Amino acid sequence: MTQDPYEILGVDRDADPDTIKKAYRRLARQLHPDVNPDPDTQERFKEVTAAYEVLSDPEKRRMYDLGGDPFGQGGGFGQGAGFSFTDIMDAFFGGQAGGAAGRGPRPRTRRGQDALVRLDVQLAEAAFGVTRELKVDTAVLCGTCQGSGAAPGSHPVTCETCHGRGEVQQVQRSFLGEIRTLRPCAACRGYGEIIPEPCRECAGDGRVRSRRTITVKIPAGVDHGTRVQLGGEGEVGPGGGPPGDLYVEIQVAPHPVFNRDGNNLRCTVAVPMTAAALGTTVEMPLLEADTAEADSDVQPWVDLDIRPGTQSGTEQVLRGYGVPSLRSQVRGDLVVTVEVETPTRLDDRQEELLRELATLRHEESPDGKIHPTHKSVFGRLRDAFGPR
Asked: Are 86 and 167 in contact, with CB atoms under 8 Å apart?
């Protein structure tokens, strides 16, 4: 049988590491002793594994390409070679090829988590912006150890079990050779160092929980559910690591007059029947009236002209009196729905005048106008393209 590792794995001599790993993985699954326990297959599996050890290690592959013995032994290729079975694990589970080297110790200092708080604001505050003092309860840097986790006067020491590597190697012998596996060090939990005297204030974590007050500037145009990001105001990380971000979620309280519809405001104004018939002018309050710090030059109301003959349910649009856009600060509109009030109680004189009006308008016994609730397709087309 050929002793060429390229031929054993069935790859070209210029194959990249990914191609070599895929070829080995495919063959190893076919030839693994758990799948094919016969002696010939086991021998073939050892040759494939030894070939992969050579081609997955850049130094051994270079040595073989130059004509040398990658194992430094006189024995033939795959004949009793002490190959690293860690490569088998790497090929199956996606580790690094030639995996005698581990990942090293875990960092004790890590970035903190993001935090979320909710802030209740009024509609005018959401529309025009507001600055608030906000109390938050988060993890902050320990003032006693300054994040090191060690008691004052002490410091972390290198773990004697793993010698600072953060992981230990276990070696087992089998008929295939040595099986080497790496596990996080149980003594230092993978950090590579031990804190002999933890800080009493933070118990070695490098951070403590504390309530603090921060200033939050809410921009104009935010809406219910909008999140404002405050960089670096979240939880301080373990070991005094950099803090995460703080997200302030806006909760807008209902307004007694206005309803928000995107950047538009909607409200309803009720006018008497006579005012709707004759026309009138209504002093319409604006959202600016709710701001305590409103500029004295800003008028908190606007005149709304009710045209003669206005029907109940008519909408009138006041341009530019809505909510500013969060991005462009261009304001939406104020949409006012006119509701015509019909009097329910009349004295004798009022009833007499209304009856006289009905007589003058020939409305003593009106038949009423019945409007269909749904129009046919042809009816809608006629309304759309008919004479105006």
From this structure: no
Residue 235 falls within a domain, yes or no?
A: yes
**Straight-line distance from the first to the last Cα atom of the chain, in angstroms, rounded to the nearest whole number:** 95
Count: domains in the chain: 4
pLDDT for res 333: 96
Q: What token pair was written down for 327?
A: 């991005």
152: in domain? no
Residue matched to tokens 């009106």: 366
Which token pair is 289?
């009236």
Determine the Cα–Cα distance for residues 171 and 369; give it in Å rounded to an integer. 96
Q: Cα dihedral sign for 72, 76, 77, 78? A: negative
- Cα four-point dihedral sign 303, 309, 311, 316: negative
Give backbone dihedrals phi and psi of 240, rounded to 5 degrees, phi first.
75, 25
Residue 279 confidence (pLDDT): 95
| Spans in the chain with pLDDT lower than 50 | 1, 72-101, 388
Residue 334 DSSP one-character state: E
* Adjacent-strand bridge partners of 84: 178
Same domain, 240 and 269: no
